[in-house]
Amino acid sequence: MNPLQIQTPEGWTNFEPGAEVDVDLSWDLESPPTALELRVVWNTAGKGTTDLSIVQSHMIESPMPRDSRRMTITLPASPYSFSGKLVSLIWALELVALPSMQSTRQEIIIAPAGREVVLRPVETEDSGKWGVNV
Q1: Range of the domain at 16
Q2: Number of domains in the chain
Q3: Residues 27-80 pLDDT 10s
Q4: What is each CA distance from 74 to 20, 29, 49, 84, in whole angstroms?
Q5: Are 60 and 54 in contact (CB under 8 A)?
Q6: CB atoms < 10 A from the CB of 113, how many?
Q7: Helix (H) or strand (E) holding 42
Q8: Has this prediction a pTM greater than 0.85?
Q9: Residue 75 belongs to a domain with what CATH number?
Q10: pLDDT tens across 91-104, in order?
């Protein structure tokens, strides 16, 4: 079991852009970290180069080795979570112990109605066109 834990309300992982979310963090580390960092990140997955962006960072300074904390964060308005044939954009919450860099990750969806945007081919005479299915 990972000594770092992230829990969202009732285990929800699908959120509206800009939603305020309570995040319950807990940790059980062998030695006290200098800090814990809750990150809101997105990354791309699929063909080509993987991109990663840390959009928000919330620090817990001088934590005890074993403790828990609730933080309220406001999720970003964009970009939306999406999945396509070649690439997907994935949002996540990451909790990182410093300086060891031990971490855990909880993937989430940020999109209208909390539903990932799915890119799919549009059936037209021009087969090179793409559409959005939300």
Answers
A1: 4-133
A2: 1
A3: 999 999 999 999 999 999 998 889 999 999 999 999 999 999 999 999 999 999
A4: 4, 27, 28, 26
A5: no
A6: 8
A7: strand 35-46
A8: yes
A9: 2.60.40.640
A10: 999 999 999 999 99
